[in-house]
Write a structure and sequence with these properties.
alpha+beta; endopeptidase fold (from Nostoc punctiforme); 2 domains; 6-stranded antiparallel sheet; 7 helices; 8 strands; about 10% strand; rod-shaped; Cell wall-associated NlpC family hydrolase; hydrolase; thiol protease; cysteine-type peptidase activity
């Protein structure tokens, strides 16, 4: 009985020690965050008083793990390319292109012009407008751009009506009509006309489907050339 009383007295002494008044600043800090060391000291003292072994418990917050899911790299973007002229669904022909351009004979040359609403045409504007009239779209606007469309024709001897004849390194363009002649919008002060291909072409481009000449096509070409008789720049 005396042992129990002694033990209880010892516990009371320890509790009084732990709960002893402390300065205000220390009390505020202790209230905000209890010290792990003081907690362990109390447990050790209690163990001595009771003869038990104090168990120290440490709690560690589990580290949150983050898994990053790799994403597939976006495929490289292809560089944009110039759209090739798109022929009409019914199939345009070189003779149809010559006929479409012929509808503008006598119209004045207007720099930058590409329609009658603008008062006339320049050389590449006439080409673009005539192709559009037969349903061919996506044609570039300038002669230097048009000279890269279609496929290369080796020489004027191999040219067919409707081929594009480029002159002066891309400074001028016309539509071949056959027999060494072309229809074009020549220069300021002139009108859309049919005239000789006046210089060695820089390039000749075939922008319409390549079809072998037929007797009917040859006859149509002869009639077209006959209709141009007397039409000069």
């Amino acid at each position: 009985m005396s042992g129990v009383v002694a033990m209880l007295g010892r516990v009371a002494e320890i509790r009084a020690f732990v709960q002893a008044p402390v300065p205000t600043s220390v009390r505020a800090t202790a209230a905000a965050a209890p010290s792990a060391a003081s907690t362990e000291a109390f447990a050790a003292a209690l163990g001595l008083a009771t003869g038990a072994t104090a168990a120290s418990t440490t709690t560690s917050p589990a580290a949150a793990s983050t898994t990053t899911v790799p994403t597939a790299a976006a495929p490289p973007t292809a560089a944009p390319t110039a759209a090739a002229p798109a022929p009409a669904a019914g199939g345009a022909t070189g003779d149809a292109l010559v006929a479409a351009a012929s509808a503008y004979l006598g119209q004045p040359y207007v720099w930058g012009g590409e329609s009658l609403a603008e008062g006339g045409f320049d050389c590449s504007g006439l080409v673009q407008r005539s192709l559009a009239d037969i349903g061919v779209t996506g044609v570039p606007r300038t002669a230097r751009e048009q000279m890269t469309t279609g496929t290369e024709v080796p020489s004027l001897d191999d040219a067919r009506p409707g081929d594009l004849v480029v002159l002066g390194g891309g400074s001028h363009i016309g539509i071949y009509v056959g027999e060494g002649k072309m229809i074009d919008a020549p220069r300021p002060g002139k009108t859309v006309t049919v005239r000789d291909v006046y210089a060695e072409p820089t390039t000749i481009r075939r922008v319409l489907p390549d079809a072998a000449p037929t007797a009917a096509a040859a006859s149509a070409q002869a009639r077209t050339l006959a209709s141009f008789a007397g039409v000069t720049s």
